[in-house]
Design brief:
By secondary structure, the chain is α+β, with helices and mostly antiparallel strands. It folds into two domains: 91 residues, no CATH class; 60 residues, no CATH class. It has six helices and six strands, in the order αββββαββαααα. Strands 1-2 form a two-stranded antiparallel sheet. A two-stranded antiparallel sheet has the order 3-4. A two-stranded antiparallel sheet has the order 5-6. Strand 3 and strand 4 form a beta hairpin. Bound molecules: zinc ion (ZN). Zinc ion binds next to loops.
Length: 180
């Protein structure tokens, strides 16, 4: 990961940032993850990477397409070829039809919602939980309130697991000391 360019290294004030300087600034705010550049700046609630550019809040990938001289056409949006929604690697940035993009995000949302629903049902109806939920309860410092809310159960159930009052198998919780 390259260091964020310092102000004095820019040619012209940052609001005029363009060309390779724009890419430098984007890269500096991303983390290389395999071939992807994962954005560490702000996102919209819909998960679109955003940055300030010439005094405006703009989608990072739209800026990249503009920089390439190929802004997204009507009914198309700047997206990724790698399906990593956080990725802002210019090589993975491409325009997609809006309909396809919506379908993609709907699919992701549905999967997450369904997974949460299934683990919640498992806990309530069967009194046991999925391995993923168990690992999350036992292997993280996340608060019981927040986990319970996600899984749709009372935090007391999360505490019961953490205190060893429930569970299919006992497991040392490396974070136990941090959970008071
Ligand atoms: Zn990528």
């Amino acid at each position: 990961m390259s260091a964020r360019p310092r102000k004095k290294d820019f040619i012209g004030p940052p609001e005029k940032l363009s060309g390779p300087y724009l890419l430098e600034a984007i890269k500096a705010r991303s983390k290389e993850c395999g071939a992807c550049w994962e954005w560490h700046g702000p996102f919209t609630s819909g998960g679109v990477p955003m940055m300030r550019h010439r005094g405006e809040r703009r989608p990072v990938r739209a800026l990249i397409l503009e920089w390439k001289g190929k802004p997204a056409r009507t009914n198309r949006v700047a997206s990724t070829s790698c399906e990593n929604t956080a990725c802002v690697n210019p090589e993975h940035t491409k325009e997609l039809p809006k309909a396809k993009m919506l379908e993609r995000s709907r699919k992701n949302t549905n999967q997450a919602a369904r997974a949460a629903k299934i683990s919640a049902t498992q806990i309530r109806k069967l009194g046991k939980i999925s391995d993923d939920a168990y690992m999350r309860i036992m292997g993280s410092t996340e608060s019981g309130v927040s986990i319970g809310k996600d899984l749709g159960v009372d935090q007391s159930l999360v505490s019961a697991y953490r205190n060893g009052k429930r569970g299919r198998f006992r497991m040392a919780n490396p974070f136990a000391g941090l959970l008071r």
